[in-house]
């Protein structure tokens, strides 16, 4: 019988990590990640978790410590946010390239400047290129379950890549929700010890981090992409396997919510999904045929499943809590890249919502649906993404207009 | 005979690497590994050593070796050390062999963190006083008045105006058990220091002055000669510090003026053609004298009880 | 050229690359003068000096011709000869 408790999201994540028996943890504190790493430190101090905890002097070193530990054959874990994640960028590229698996909680927080501790997805979106698997969660329960799945995904012998479990700062990390835990025997059976084929070993000396020329470099990069393509299937399998054990099915790469007959389909990730689902329920009562695709795995990008779920939709509204300055929102761009040459593709409207913690509430979601319908009916795609709740007057006043 | 059969068992850095001919670093690495034996995992940050020893498919390392990025030699090593501890692999040790660029400059923060945490890592800096891998740009380890490509001698410049960062002192100030300096010109001394360092646990540091014929600008056969001259001039003091106190120095058998060390090197040649250059040499001599005084590098004079008359300058 | 996961390579494979092609002069040991002190073997940055029984030999497949062995030999037993004319 599983234990259920009301507890802080950060605490739930720490318990999930503990259950996975990591051998090395290293992290540098940064709001809103701190409660996770503090909880783990308390567990170690009380003798409840037998693990090497390396207290580093920067995130660059935190990512490096877990990379080195992984190369030496230990299951490793880190956590960071915003500025810290960006500081790790170089290290994460190298570790993905060297196929060093570990799990990192990426507590989403907007990126300076201006400095803020509010939530958006800019930090992890900025890391979408190196070959990190990125999972996004909606709730503390999903965070707990997804961390356990994440280790299995990362350490799969044909994947061997770092996995980021992305969860919205404050909203998920610092709120209290009901979480059901998985029994330790079940976790052990689901997640056996880490046994990589290659690791730093005096009995079998090998060389990591070689210099490669143009005759092989493209092939090395392609193999990462190839591993991520393979990971799509494995991620679905692993989440299914976990759902069998827990009785909780969060979905696989995506969760399709009321999309079967939807005319307007929203696409989103993170905690805003919860509010969107509730809003959709209300709109449905009013007779509006609206659905949602919750992206659970952003990298690799599950376009096959998304395309399948938007069949029949007239318009797709992508909610991006991030923006590529000078262009558009990332999710919007990823989707449009796959749709653009397909006949009969629905219009995609990119909505920039929730930057810097601006609330994605019911009223704004309703506004999104309305605007999407308008664009869908006009048949004319927007040239620019639609910034939800933007006070353009403030901007213009500031610019002296 | 299979070529690999001609190597003795303690040869853990084999032929075929792509170091320049006469490379002081390559020679040092052979002896570092002879002294450590094969139960070591080696971390090398980006630099000359990394590049010439790891073209894909051609590795001279007969020990497990990892290069990650430039700034994180110390933290990769900390991670490996933590993993070994967690896995109970007590007989395997971690060493970093990194250049001055990675150690004095871009990886300095990570190094300080590793030292402060007390991680069980022996950090060896193979110091050739510039970013040699990329052609010889200035580093914090470049000597005073050396000409480097980013701080070159010119009509309005004598080269680097800052002294070499005293990294051994900074490291010793972290309270680590063992700090030493060494040179491939004195290989027995080098190996002894490595062996001694391996007997300690916790963070240890050895800085090896590795002459670079290619960029310092001397003939490849002179590598060890230049190394000896550096030591004999007092500019490259060889010493050991244990728990913050200097416990041994290598005395200079026959002191030479710094000019004998500077002149054969192209990177100092600009000092010999002007008055400012000559003044600069005097400043470098003062540095050497400081070292000799501070570390007691000269043997005691035989007639130390005999009073000497004051010189004209002293009156 | 094989692609390995994460570009991991076996140690000791540098022996597949013969750096001997780099040199423009080669060391020659006069075995009559050689005192068998072993200094040349010790100081070669490329590990090209080896012993067969107690005879010191140069592995010309890898020798880069730096001249350190000739310069440092206390018995003056090694001469650098210019390569291929």
Give a concise summary:
The complex is a heterotrimer of chains A (401), B (315) and C (85). Chain B is α/β, with parallel strands linked by helices and 315 residues long.
Topology, pairings included?
The complex is a heterotrimer of chains A (401), B (315) and C (85).
Chain A (H helix, E strand, L loop, with lengths): L3 E5 H11 L4 E4 L6 H12 L6 E4 L3 H13 L4 E5 L1 H6 L1 H9 L5 E6 L13 H4 L7 E4 L3 H16 L7 E6 L7 E5 L3 H7 L15 E3 L8 H30 L7 E4 L6 E5 L3 H14 L4 E6 L1 E3 L3 H7 L5 E6 L9 H10 L7 E6 L9 H17 L7 E2 L4 H7 L3
Parallel strand pairs in A: 2-3, 2-4, 4-5, 5-7, 6-7, 11-12, 11-14, 14-15, 15-16
Antiparallel strand pairs in A: 1-8, 6-13, 10-12
Helix pairs in contact in A: 1-2, 1-7, 3-5, 7-9
Chain B lengths: L23 H13 L3 E4 L4 H6 L11 E2 L6 H15 L5 E7 H7 L1 H10 L3 E7 L25 E2 L2 E2 L8 H6 L5 E5 L4 H13 L4 E6 L3 H5 L5 H11 L5 E4 L2 E5 L8 H5 L12 H21 L20
Parallel strand pairs in B: 1-2, 1-3, 3-4, 4-8, 7-8
Antiparallel strand pairs in B: 5-6, 7-9, 9-10
Chain C lengths: L8 E2 L14 E5 L9 H5 L5 E4 L2 E4 L9 H5 L5 E5 L3
Antiparallel strand pairs in C: 2-5, 3-4
Could you walk me through the main structural features you see in this protein, from its secondary elements to its overall organization?
- The complex is a heterotrimer of chains A (401), B (315) and C (85).
- Chain A has 401 residues and is α/β, with parallel strands linked by helices.
- Chain A is built from 14 helices and 16 strands.
- In chain A, strand 14, helix 12 (330-339) and strand 15 (347-352) form a beta-alpha-beta unit.
- The radius of gyration of chain A is 21 Å and the shape is globular.
- Chain B has 315 residues and is an alpha/beta fold.
- Helices cover 36% and strands 14% of the residues of chain B.
- Chain B is built from eleven helices and ten strands.
- Chain B is globular and about 65 Å long.
- The model of chain B has no long low-confidence stretch (mean pLDDT 95).
- Helices cover 12% and strands 24% of the residues of chain C.
- Chain C has helices at residues 39-43, 68-72; strands spanning 9-10, 25-29, 49-52, 55-58, 78-82.
- A two-stranded antiparallel ribbon of chain C has the order 2-5. A two-stranded antiparallel ribbon of chain C has the order 3-4.
- Chain C starts with 8 loop residues before the first strand and ends with a strand.
- The chains are: A alpha/beta (401), B alpha/beta (315), C alpha+beta (85).
- Chains in contact: A-B, A-C, B-C.
């Amino acid at each position: 019988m599983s234990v259920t408790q009301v507890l802080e999201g950060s605490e739930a994540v720490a318990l999930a990590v503990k259950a996975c028996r990591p051998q090395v943890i290293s992290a540098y504190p940064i709001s809103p990640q701190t409660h996770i790493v503090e909880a783990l430190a308390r567990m170690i101090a009380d003798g409840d978790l037998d693990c090497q905890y390396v207290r580093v002097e920067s995130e660059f070193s935190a990512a490096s410590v877990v990379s080195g530990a992984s190369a030496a054959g230990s299951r490793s874990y880190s956590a960071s946010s915003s500025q810290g994640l960006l500081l790790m960028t170089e290290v994460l590229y190298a570790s993905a390239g060297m196929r060093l698996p570990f799990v990192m909680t990426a507590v989403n927080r907007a990126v300076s400047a201006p400095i803020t501790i509010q939530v958006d997805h800019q930090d992890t979106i900025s890391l979408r290129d190196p070959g990190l698997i990125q999972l996004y969660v909606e709730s503390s329960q999903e965070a707990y379950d997804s961390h356990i799945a994440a280790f299995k995904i990362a350490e799969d012998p044909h994947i061997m890549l770092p996995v980021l479990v992305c969860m919205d700062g404050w909203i998920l990390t610092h709120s209290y929700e009901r979480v059901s835990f998985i029994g330790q025997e079940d976790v052990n059976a689901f997640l056996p010890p880490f046994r990589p084929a290659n690791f730093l070993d005096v009995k079998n000396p090998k060389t990591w981090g070689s210099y490669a020329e143009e005759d092989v470099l493209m092939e090395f990069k392609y193999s990462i992409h190839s591993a991520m393509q393979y990971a799509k299937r494995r991620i679905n399998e692993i989440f299914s396997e976990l759902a069998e054990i827990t009785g909780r099915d969060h979905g696989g790469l995506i969760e399709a919510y009321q999309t079967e007959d939807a005319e307007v389909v929203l696409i989103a990730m993170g905690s805003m999904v919860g509010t969107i689902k509730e809003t959709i329920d209300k709109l449905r009562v009013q007779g509006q045929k609206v659905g949602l695709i919750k992206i659970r795995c952003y990298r690799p990008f599950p376009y096959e499943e998304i395309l399948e779920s938007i069949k029949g939709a007239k318009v797709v509204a992508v909610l991006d809590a991030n923006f590529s300055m000078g262009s558009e929102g990332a999710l919007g761009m990823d989707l449009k890249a796959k749709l653009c040459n397909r006949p009969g593709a629905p219009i995609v409207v990119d909505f920039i919502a929730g930057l810097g913690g601006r609330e994605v509430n019911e009223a704004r979601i309703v506004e999104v649906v309305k605007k999407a319908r308008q664009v869908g009916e006009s048949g004319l795609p927007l040239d620019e993404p639609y910034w939800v709740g933007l006070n353009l007057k403030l901007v213009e006043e500031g610019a002296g207009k | 005979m299979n070529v690999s059969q001609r190597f003795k068992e303690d040869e853990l850095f084999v032929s075929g690497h792509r170091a320049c001919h006469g490379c002081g670093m390559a020679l040092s690495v052979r002896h570092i590994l002879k002294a450590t034996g094969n139960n070591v995992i080696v971390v090398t940050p980006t630099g000359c050593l990394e590049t010439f020893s790891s073209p894909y498919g051609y590795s001279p390392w007969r020990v497990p070796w990892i290069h990650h990025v430039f700034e994180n030699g110390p933290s990769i090593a900390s991670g490996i050390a933590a993993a070994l501890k967690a896995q109970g692999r007590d007989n395997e040790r971690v060493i970093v062999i990194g250049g001055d660029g990675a150690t004095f400059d871009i990886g300095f923060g990570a190094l300080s963190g590793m030292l402060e945490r007390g991680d069980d890592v022996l950090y060896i800096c193979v110091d050739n006083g510039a970013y040699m891998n990329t052609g010889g740009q200035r580093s914090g380890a470049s000597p005073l008045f050396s000409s480097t490509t980013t701080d070159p001698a010119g009509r309005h410049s004598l080269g680097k105006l800052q002294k070499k960062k005293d990294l051994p002192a900074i490291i010793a100030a972290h309270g680590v058990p063992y700090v030493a300096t060494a040179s491939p010109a004195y290989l027995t001394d080098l190996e002894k220091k490595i062996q001694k360092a391996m007997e300690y646990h916790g963070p240890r540091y050895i800085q090896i002055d590795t002459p670079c014929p290619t960029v310092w600008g001397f003939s490849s056969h002179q590598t060890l000669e230049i190394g000896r001259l550096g030591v004999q001039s007092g500019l490259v003091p060889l010493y050991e510090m244990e728990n913050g106190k200097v416990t041994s120095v290598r005395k200079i058998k026959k002191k030479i003026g710094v000019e004998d060390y500077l002149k054969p090197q192209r990177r100092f040649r600009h000092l010999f053609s002007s008055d400012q250059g000559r003044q600069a040499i005097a400043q470098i001599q003062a540095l050497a004298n400081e070292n000799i005084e501070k570390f007691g590098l000269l043997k005691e004079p035989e007639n130390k009880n005999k009073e000497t008359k004051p010189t004209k300058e002293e009156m | 050229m094989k692609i390995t996961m994460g570009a991991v390579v076996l140690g000791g494979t540098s022996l597949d690359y013969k750096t001997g092609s780099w040199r423009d002069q080669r060391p020659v040991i006069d075995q009559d003068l050689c005192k068998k002190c072993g200094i040349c073997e010790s100081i070669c940055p490329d590990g090209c000096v080896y012993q067969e029984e107690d005879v010191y030999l140069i592995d010309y497949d890898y020798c880069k011709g730096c001249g350190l062995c000739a310069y440092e030999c206390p018995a003056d037993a090694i001469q650098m000869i210019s390569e291929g004319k």
